[in-house]
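Components:
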Amino acid sequence: MSIHPSVAAIGAGDVELHQPPSTKRDGRGSSRAVAIAIGGAEDKEGDKTILRDFWQRAGGEHSDIVVIPAASGIPETIGPVYRNLFIEMGTAADAVRVLDIRNPFDACNPAALELVKHSTGIYFTGGDQERLAEVLGGTELMQQLRQRWLQGKTTVAGTSAGASALGHQMIARGYSGESPTPGIVTVKAGLGFLAGVIVDQHFHNRNRLIRLLTAVAHRPDCIGIDEDTAAAIGPDDTLEVIGAGTVTIVDGRTLRSNVTEVDLDRPFNLHDVKLHLLAAGSRFCLTTRAVV
Amino acid sequence: MSIHPSVAAIGAGDVELHQPPSTKRDGRGSSRAVAIAIGGAEDKEGDKTILRDFWQRAGGEHSDIVVIPAASGIPETIGPVYRNLFIEMGTAADAVRVLDIRNPFDACNPAALELVKHSTGIYFTGGDQERLAEVLGGTELMQQLRQRWLQGKTTVAGTSAGASALGHQMIARGYSGESPTPGIVTVKAGLGFLAGVIVDQHFHNRNRLIRLLTAVAHRPDCIGIDEDTAAAIGPDDTLEVIGAGTVTIVDGRTLRSNVTEVDLDRPFNLHDVKLHLLAAGSRFCLTTRAVV
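Structure:
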């Protein structure tokens, strides 16, 4: 494990006082922070709309951000890319750290736990969601991180693989360009921020609607997010669309299907799946399934 | 224009007596024959399930089949491929003709008109649906062909581009792998067999759901057909699925959208689109939108 720029910076300062502005309570008493699922390839050179949105919600100039590149095969490269972006936006250099953990042992390191305790923003990079879940899933670090998010103290964002891993369940692998069969997706446990929702990314860009429809045959609610597009999900389950493309809601609550796990290669019937395509500025309530 | 094997064969015999077995009447008095939209790449070497289904509906051994390769860039090659297949199934060699018309003038040739008058089965090959519609659209040949189909005297099938062209309207061109915008599909007039339905083909294989969703923003009912899969649509508007993959029904009747033609490149909102994925053996009524 390595923490950049230095472990010594952990816990310093008063960032704990700056709760992310996105924190709010809904009627059901949830005070969790916003979770931002990003479809990958978010703009890093122009207006940086999505990254700036995360940064603002995490506290802006007063933010304390931890970048976790555990999904990436090149964490030593990708971690600093995001770190520099958030510093350029205005966060103090010693308040943006890269937490480069590569196995579950790293995730038990007291220094890592200490780092997360003071964060107001967590950013999961892209890469491979299976790797990310293998490194972090079920660790004490994840428990603390989720606890802090549930308390509304840290905004959580993930891009690409990092977005997929935000769900309690995620598409670990999948195919496109085939007739839909149960075998074209593999669903595994994610990091457990978003309950009951499966998130897919690079969505229309990589033609993933069919794999998400296959996933919805097993789980009722799925969200597909295009590149340079994000779904910011608040504590009241309202989803707000940010960025250049669309967020696709696949609503399987009225679904009828003859899918069985027995024959993974056999095309199946799916009836009454409802779709919603949402462009930037749209707000949609995941509980009521209605436009806000 | 050329007609194979010979124009002399036109009008010979008693094929007129053999109405396709698929012809039937529904409660609204329609006696039209079945139209079979095939998603392309139909099996030509194994069981030939789809081609055999068309052949049976066209009268089997007593069929009089006209193959129209007008969509194809290599009509002199693709026409005889289908001709030989139907002869191998049992139709007399002089009762399977290739109608190789390449422009609207060819479609006015009396010999072509005479040929169609006695057909019990018409098969449109793949290629380019725009070329097919440009050659045949609005011609006297098409009027006679459609009249004969409406009277229940000739079963009509089209594969790939031939399937797209069966609609009153068709997707002439489209893209995949982009966020959905109004600009990703171009809709033009088809050959006018299937009213109110836009047909797309090579469907999941070429990731075309988004372009069909975009088309549905303009027209309420769309059908996407996978490769080696067919939708046989009867006179009572019941669609039956045949073959290896799935037929996807995109039902936009309850759709709400902010699509405008003004900004073709801007992602749009689509709410409450309903999807049905149907595997082989499924029967679905396009009028009631219910599984039969």
